[in-house]
Amino acid sequence: MGYLKQFSIQQPFSIAMGSSRALLMLSNFKFKPSFPFASSSFLKPFSPIINNNLRTRSFSMKTRSSLQPPDLPRLAETARISLSPNEVEEFAPKIRQVIDWFGQLQAVDLDNVEPALRADTEGDNLREDVPETFDNKEALIASVPSYEKPYIKVPKVLNKE
Amino acid sequence: MYGHQTKKMKNPFWVLSFGKMLSAIQPPRYLSRFPLSRRAKCRSLHILSSTEPVTRTSLTDQSQILSNRDLLLSRQLSAIELTHSYLDRLKQTEPHINCFLHVSDPDKVLKQAQEIDDKIKRNEEVGPLAGVIVAIKDNICTADMPSTGGSHILEGYRPPFDATAVKRLKDLGAIVVGKTNLDEFGMGSTTEASAFKVTANPWDLSRVPGGSSGGSAASVSARQCVVSLGSDTGGSVRQPASFCGVVGLKPTYGRVSRFGLMAYASSLDVIGCFGSSVADTGILLHAIAGHDSLDATSNKREVPDFTSQFTSASSLESRPLEGLRVGIIRETVDAGVDSGVKSAIHGAAAHLEQLGCILKEVSLPSFSLGLPAYYILASSESSSNLSRYDGVRYGNQASSDELNALYKESRAKGFGSEVKMRILMGAYALSAGYYDAYYKRAQQVRTIIRKSFKAALDENDILISPAAPSAAYKIGEKKNDPLAMYAGDIMTVNVNLAGLPALVLPCGFVEGGAAGLPVGLQMIGAAFDEEKLVRVGHIFERTLQGYNFVPPLISNGAFA
What we know:
- The complex is a heterodimer.
- By secondary structure, chain A is an all-alpha fold.
- In chain A, 34% of the residues lie in helices and 2% in strands.
- In chain A, strand 1 (147-148) and strand 2 form a beta hairpin.
- Chain B has one domain (64-370, 440-556): Alpha-Beta Complex (Amidase signature (AS) enzymes), CATH 3.90.1300.
- Chain B has 18 helices and 13 strands.
- An 11-stranded mixed β-sheet of chain B has the order 2-4-3-5-7-6-11-12-10-8-9, sandwiched between helices. A two-stranded antiparallel ribbon of chain B has the order 1-13.
- Classes of the chains: A mainly alpha, B alpha/beta.
- Chains A and B meet through helix 2, helix 6, helix 7 and helix 8 of A and helix 11, helix 12, helix 13, helix 14 and helix 15 of B.
- Chain B: One of its GO terms (biological process) is mitochondrial translation.
């Protein structure tokens, strides 16, 4: 695949960046001095995006030093997805590229900014905690791939270890 | 079927009426509102000047839903005839466009239409959406038909319930014509990441319809249905609306119940509306909006009657938007944005000024931070949400003699590459010790973005921007370049982070394809102020002249 030739693991960032005009937008990030969050560190993340130099940049944030690059087999284990060797080869450079791109937020000054779980939702919309009967039980059970009345059947749960 | 009609281009009724059967009877009035234009390329923006009289049109001319209803209730057309016309067009166009993953059994669809006709014959009340042909994105559950989310892991799955939005549409008389194609579980911007098929853009079959709600947008564009439902996590309603030249409405976070929507990123997901007019999307939103006890994030606010905003063009004053403050977001018409898109947006801004708006440039310096923040939040939340697909309770199961292997194999076989990668990235971002560096920081960026939108919307009634940095691009063009694909979402993701409502409506064309490619204008409003967006969008649309947003394939009958 052409992609893999271009995007070897040794040189994951020589790619793509220039091919997207939209990404150039990121280089034109301008700050008004009056912007309350503007600081010199705020500007840092945007140059590496264009310079294709993501791995060599240094972060002032202490958190960064402890961050390891993604270890695909371990992540796949965590996420309960088997990956074929081909998939590992295909995904690794792409995932590293995106994770490094995520990394630009490390250099943003976010001290004293409250995290927002989501957009505002007003009031208490929780319903009463009372059981209700679901009418279409048959259809629920019909969609279970492996069913032996009255149980959902799965392979043995306990491991030897 | 349409071939003979092109010879009679001078008669718009002939050309645009939609089938043998219907061409013999009174042409549907709503189709006549599309001006015929043979000079498809290089249309110049004709701005309705304040001194020109506004063309007289009635309210029903502005909405397919309302005009169809008018035809039904005045008995000029039966629901059966109307339904046939959509089914015929769907049958003709679908092999070329591939909007649907599942098309309803025509006999069942016609039976529902017959029931409406019977009611009308007996002078019984019919629902406000009686006979409205609606398509549903396949990540929204429908009880009596497959709902796959575009994923092999749910191939053949039939949910035991309707999503609340679908149930409300059915209760009001709408007829579901099928389930539309999407990027697997909504993860993508082109609909190429569907496990089943690639949908084409009706304006140029070699181009993508956008995504992830590409099937829903293309089916409205190709007039295979009247309106459709999509979902919008980072722009999945607005960007395809822009690419396909239709209207897309992303409601405020919490406005519409998400019960029955397959969860992707729960802090961002909303169900949204597609139509060929602002009025239709407003009517559709009104039908599905409002509190639902089955979704704790759905809001209890009263839903205004958006139809009250649809003044007929004839009653418009010369400057109907006098004094409305419009902020154009500087960062969205900057470098990196296609020049054709920029000039279409500037043209739209000029049109708004003609209508009386006060235009101002607004800077949102945090705008570009929204993109990585969005992808951190979306992939993290998806890695959690998609853990439900374990092959045990529903969906496809791989055979294995050990439970963990069963999970891993079922998911390996069931998920496509993009979904696997996003789950893995999300698992990385949520790894022990990394939460503060990624997820929490992204949430802090969300706070900054919310505040900057709030400040901008305190000073402006609405904000405008493009819906995407370019018009529709070629199928395959960005498939192997995740960052290039993600960068295309820059115009839309911030709105999801802030939870705001936004309306995208076609405002012009750029060069491309046989007849040019449509460009959408995004209007962003304050939380729960869809009413203003619908009002402004409606007036904008009614006064924008010289454009025809029906793809030539449909309007000149290339599928004969």
